[in-house]
Amino acid sequence: MTTNTHATAKPAKPTPLDWKIYWAEKKEKKAQEQERKRKRKRYEDAQDVPPVKKKSCNVRRRIKQKADAEKKAAEWRSTRSEPDFGDWDKKEKPKITLRLRGAEKSS
Question: Could you tell me where the Basic residues compositional bias lies (predicted)?
Answer without folding.
Answer: 52-64
